[in-house]
Write a structure and sequence with these properties.
This protein is mostly beta strands. It contains no helices and 13 strands. Helix content is 0%, strand content 41%.
């Protein structure tokens, strides 16, 4: 028996459920698969929140303003035999972990430099009502150094459709929108 003076106090409950990503080692080929797990705030039990049968990597990015939708980043299987080009998607889950929609425009998969541009997780900004989301995408541009340019777009969370292009830049540098939607940040190399 441990004396009361040396006993550990009970672990207090979390203020809210916690989501995190874990990799499973039993993936297709030699690449692991991610799952999003949930820790129950009161019981501290861990359970699957979202399991994806297609994506290799899953990153929870941002909750909608009302907390009923979660934007996630999905890195899909490679499109080339060298396993260097992994398409990226921005998708929306509901609060129970059910996939609702993926945006029609993909997140960038090309960056300036090798492999620096591959490791970025792109920021997203929600509209105040949570019906639209703003994010960075890319387009082929033969005039740019990298062969790709970037666009900051507004898309419908309900349909996944791109509603409009807010900013376009003819190089493959990251761009993002401030939370108040009044400023655009453009990354040029290692500087913002």
């Amino acid at each position: 028996t441990i004396p009361a003076a040396h006993a550990q106090p009970p672990i207090p409950p979390l203020p809210a459920d916690l989501l995190f990503t874990a990799s499973l080692t039993a993936g297709q080929g030699d690449l692991p698969r991610d799952v999003i797990l949930r820790v129950d705030a009161e019981t501290l039990e861990i359970s699957p929140f979202y399991v994806d049968t297609e994506a290799y990597e899953l990153i929870p990015l941002s909750w909608s303003p009302s907390g009923d939708k979660l934007a996630i980043y999905r890195r899909m299987p490679p499109t080339d035999s060298a396993r260097t080009l992994f398409p990226r998607q921005l998708c929306i889950l509901d609060r129970t972990g059910v996939l609702q929609q993926c945006m029609e425009d993909n997140l960038p998969m090309h960056g300036v430099g090798f492999p620096q541009g591959w490791g970025y997780y792109y920021p997203v900004t929600w509209s105040p009502g949570g019906q639209n989301i703003y994010f960075d995408t890319e387009y082929p541009d033969t005039e740019s150094f990298s062969g790709y340019g970037r666009r900051l777009v507004e898309a419908s969370v309900v349909t996944g459709e791109t509603l409009r292009i807010l900013h376009e830049y003819p190089e493959s540098f990251s761009i993002s929108l401030s939370p108040d939607m009044n400023h655009v940040a453009l990354e040029c190399g290692d500087d913002w």
